[in-house]
Design the sequence.
């Protein structure tokens, strides 16, 4: 079993960018947390981060036939990218949307999620633990 974790713009700046919103834990710490979960669950997890919308679309398309599910934090592309929505729909893989902060308690423009329309569930406002929650959701869904 293999899952793909996709992180959008600026997530590589975790711990630096707005720590009052996103916390002080670094991106490398997040990757270690995901790697530990992967080993404990005997599931391969590939992590991918890009600041470029097209690279994210390409990675989603490449997951077709290779991965069993996608956990995605599209970050700023959440609210703007129909291309990411279409890629998720085209790949047809079970997907969970993740947001570290509670986007529904932030600026009004953050309340709309295009990518989330292609996801079977959403983990919002749970901090970095949201990644583990999302991976557990995928595991349960794929094992059905």
Sequence:
């Amino acid at each position: 079993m293999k899952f793909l974790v996709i992180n959008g713009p600026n997530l590589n700046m975790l711990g630096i960018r707005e720590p009052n919103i996103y916390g002080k834990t670094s991106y490398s710490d997040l990757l270690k947390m995901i790697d530990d979960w992967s080993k404990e669950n005997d599931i391969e997890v590939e992590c991918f981060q890009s600041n470029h919308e097209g690279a994210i679309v390409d990675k989603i398309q490449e997951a077709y036939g290779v991965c069993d599910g996608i956990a995605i934090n599209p970050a700023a592309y959440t609210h703007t990218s129909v291309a990411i929505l279409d890629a998720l729909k085209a790949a047809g893989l079970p997907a969970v949307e993740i947001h570290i902060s509670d986007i529904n308690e932030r600026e009004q423009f953050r309340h709309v999620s295009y990518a989330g329309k292609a996801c079977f569930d959403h983990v919002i406002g749970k901090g970095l633990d949201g990644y583990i929650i999302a991976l557990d959701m995928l595991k349960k869904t794929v094992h059905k």
Notes: The longest helix spans residues 27-41. Strands lie at 2-7, 44-49, 69-73, 95-99, 121-124. The chain has a mean pLDDT of 93.
